[in-house]
Write a structure and sequence with these properties.
Layout (H helix, E strand, L loop, with lengths): L2 H4 L1 H7 L5 H11 L3 E3 L2 E7 L4 E6 L8 E2 L1 E2 L5 E7 L5 E10 L2 E5 L7 E4 L2 E7 L19 E9 L4 E9 L11 E5 L1 H7 L2 H10 L7 E5 L4 H4 L4 H18 L9 E6 L1 H12 L6 E5 L19 H12 L7 E7 L5 H13 L3 E7 L5 H15 L10
Helix pairs in contact: 7-8
Organism: Terracoccus luteus
Protein name: Enterochelin esterase family protein
InterPro entries: AB_hydrolase_fold, Esterase-like, Ig-like_fold, Ig_E-set, Mycobacterial_A85_antigen
Length: about 375
Amino acid sequence: MSAARRLAINRLREGGPLDGPAIDRFVDRYGSPIIEGERATFLFRGDVDEVWVRHRVVGLPDGLPLKRIGESDLWAVTTVLPEGSRVEYQIEIRKGESYERFNDPLNPRVAQSPMGSSSVCAAVGYRVPEWVHHDPEARPGELVEEQVRSKALRRDQPIQIYLPARFNRAQSYPLLVVHDGTDYLQFAAMKTVLDNLIHRLDLDPLVAVFVPPRDRLKEYPNHAPHARFVARELVPLLTERLPLIDTPEARCLMGSSFGGIAAFSTAVRYPGFFGSLMLQSASLVFTDIGFDHGGGPAFDPVVKFVNAFREKPRQVVDRIHMSCGVYEPLITPNRSMVPVLRHTGTRVRYVESRDGHNWENWRDGLGVGLPWLFPGPQKYVYE
């Protein structure tokens, strides 16, 4: 029997009358999506005119149309999903002139983000990393909420400071500055991840400061006041108040998407002040020919910044950990920037995942990137 004929949805088609009870049993047994090897079958049940799977997977049609099974109210589509993949999606339906979009009602697995929730399809081979889950044996660090006055930003800036378990003022700690800090805590379980990695001796105990933006589209793409706040106000303030190692190699900037641009552009404006960067799916959009970058007006300052750096690249930190999902549009510019950065003498570790532009992808990457930048006793040799 061929692989296609072995699929559950095809056995249903060939197995007899598609009445309501038969479909009920099928849906109750399998749910959606049905993962069989490298094939994923998405299902929808309802009296509608059209159904699509909406997603952000580069190379896969969006939306992916489902077809009605016979004359029933069951709809299905099968696509290839390579081993280890993780995809976020929603269902869109049309009934007459009315369109509606929502999470998959047959799939209880969802991911949260600042934009809301999405259904999750996990292929064979994907597992949520064990250090993402709460470990009752890991001593928790402490989160301290504060407001700091910023002359550069002309406002009070909220921050949250992470102090590791067994924090001791007689010791000195590295500093990690996290852009989109509130989102990393809420949607990437970052406090839990830090607690676990430190407990497991994979990560050197460190102090992290989580910084949320007020207007990220303005403040994150190469914004001088933001960079000045981080390098000339926030870091010196924390260094004065906390037992931090006051050397560049002990200071790291990190961020995802536009937050990655904020981290990178701050390092470019203050070269040598930070020792490392952690860039997750950074919006490193550029144009080699022409002016149409396809990102809309919000990306204009990003493109201007990246183009200028590519024209005159220079080393601004010692090490960069870069990561990107192969299913996101930013995969091409991220791949393209790796040799540019390495050519400056910067040590770059670049990692790809079978995932998209989302917070759980960035969450999963924390346990890969942070121990490389600040290795604990179990990771004392840089890879």
